[in-house]
Design a protein that fits this description.
There is one protein chain. The chain is 27% helix and 25% strand. By secondary structure, it is of the alpha+beta class. The protein starts with a helix and ends with a helix. It folds into 2 domains: 83 residues, no CATH class; 206 residues, 2-enoyl-CoA Hydratase, Chain A, domain 1 (Alpha-Beta Complex), CATH 3.90.226.10. The strands form 3 sheets. Strands 1, 5, 6, 7, 8, 11, 12 and 13 form an 8-stranded antiparallel sheet that branches. Strands 2-3-4-9-10-14 form a 6-stranded mixed sheet, sandwiched between helices. It is built from 8 helices and 16 strands.
Length: 327
């Protein structure tokens, strides 16, 4: 968490499953964190209950919490995937998927995305559907999730529905181990532990002999959930380095000042095992093929930051992998 502050902030501002929050909530000048503390106590995935009870006692169940920053820090002590923001607008991220050509490889970038506006979501998934259709009927498909820090899984899954089999994508488990399967069936994505249902025009299924998905330490949250859905396709191979490990489900609570608390309310069961693992509680996804080089190139401004561009040495490794698929 401490080794790369920039990366962690990016993940926290694009985490999965933020509940669609109504802008019509009452706004008050005095910050009240009690609803967040109560909801986390009742529904949250809390890793250390004794520590959380001390936090509740020390803050008088949230009455002594005076700022969003303080609340966010306390929520993260309960679960690393939980946090708070002063406005839901802080997590807005509208970058669209795009096709790039890198050293003779055609790669579809699948970026982080969050918006509450359905038309904006629709632009994202329709762009991704179009790029997949344009890539067909090639035998190989390369998707880049290396810089995808999360946001909403729904538009990502809808955009990739042409290569995701219908059925149970994954299962959420609440803090009482009750199960909540999330299914995809002919353009309908069911709701699941704070994640909303979505209905879209189902694309025609596309068939690629090899689907390579680039992953790395910035791949987080909604991106990791989308990877679980993708891995149900037996032609999908994860390539790169282990993901960030925000494999859990979040739900949002609006606070009286317009702030939002994003609370971790579910662990995950993958429909298929990923590197031998099926149950996840903020553990990383281990790629099928671990590369020597990190997918993202280091930035010139600092050793611990990354540029967002694929590393040339990683691309060379990826070319070797692609050639092996062709042989």
């Amino acid at each position: 968490m401490k080794r790369n502050l920039f990366r962690i902030i990016g993940i926290l501002l694009a985490c999965t499953g933020v509940m669609m929050l109504s802008a019509s909530q009452h706004i008050s000048s005095r910050f009240d964190a009690r609803p967040a503390i109560a909801a986390m106590t009742r529904r949250g995935i809390i890793n250390d209950r004794e520590s959380w009870q001390r936090i509740r006692k020390q803050t008088d169940n949230g009455r002594q919490i005076t700022s969003v920053t303080q609340l966010s820090r306390l929520l993260q002590r309960a679960n690393r995937h939980s946090f708070a923001v002063s406005s839901i607008k802080q997590v807005e991220h509208h970058q669209l998927p795009r096709l790039v050509r890198n050293q003779r490889l055609n790669i579809i970038n699948v970026p982080a995305f969050f918006s509450q506006q359905r038309p904006v979501q629709k632009r994202y998934w329709q762009r991704l559907q179009t790029l997949l259709k344009q890539a067909s009927p090639a035998s190989q498909l390369i998707l880049n999730f290396a810089g995808n820090t999360g946001g909403l899984a729904e538009p990502m899954i809808a955009g990739l529905a042409a290569i995701i089999p219908n059925g149970t994508l994954y299962t959420g488990l609440d803090n009482h181990d009750r199960t909540f399967p999330r299914t995809l069936h002919h353009g309908h994505l069911s709701n699941n532990l704070g994640q909303e249902a979505l209905t879209f025009q189902p694309p025609k299924p596309l068939h690629f002999k090899h689907i390579t998905v680039i992953v790395g330490e910035q791949t987080a949250s909604a991106a990791e959930i989308t990877l679980m859905a993708l891995k149900r396709n037996p032609h999908v191979t994860l390539v790169g380095h282990p993901t960030a490990g925000y494999t859990s489900l979040n739900s949002g609570v609006y606070l009286n000042t317009g702030a939002a608390a994003v609370l971790t309310v579910g662990t995950l069961k993958s429909t298929v095992k990923i590197h031998g693992q099926q149950f996840f509680n903020n553990q990383p996804l281990i790629p099928d093929v671990t590369t020597l080089y990190q997918p993202l190139a280091p930035a010139r401004t600092g050793h611990h930051q990354q540029s967002g561009q694929l590393d040339p040495d990683f691309i060379s490794e990826l070319q070797t992998i692609a050639r092996s698929h062709d042989s």
